[in-house]
Amino acid sequence: MLSTNPAELEQILRDTRTVAVVGASDNPARPSNDVYRYLARFSHYELYPVNPNIDDIDGTPVYPSLADLPVVPDMVDVFRRHGELDAVLTDTLALNPHPKYLWLQQGLWDEEIGKRAQDAGMRVVMDRCLKVDYARLIGR
């Protein structure tokens, strides 16, 4: 189901323990870096940054792909261009078991991607900032 109401979002945020941040950046000017750093500092999440072009963020290893993660994350948080969403979802669905949640950051909305993820049993959040919703509903 597409999750948008505050009670559903809060339930997702509280239930999540591990998050793969696809498109995480080591560049402080990038929104994905800001969100990653906030979550690393203030959330209860175990974070797994994913980006094939960098090796680490502040000493934390960055994984080249979802398939390289040492765990199957509860949530895949996506910071990629719209045209890359299909490949990200394909990689997400290749994980066994599938992650519970697909979170598309602000500016990302795709009905077909959402439907495919939902049909695979995932709950989907689109066009929302994980940092903003976490701060508003859970933490600082």
From TrEMBL:
Pfam families, A to Z: CoA_binding_2
Ranges for domain CoA-binding: 12-108
UniProt cross-references to SUPFAM superfamilies, sorted A to Z: NAD(P)-binding Rossmann-fold domains
Gene3D superfamilies for the chain: NAD(P)-binding Rossmann-like Domain (3.40.50.720)
UniProt cross-references to InterPro entries, sorted A to Z: CoA-bd, NAD(P)-bd_dom_sf
Signal peptide: none
Record-given protein name: CoA-binding protein
The organism of origin for this protein: Mycobacterium pinniadriaticum
Lineage: Bacteria, Bacillati, Actinomycetota, Actinomycetes, Mycobacteriales
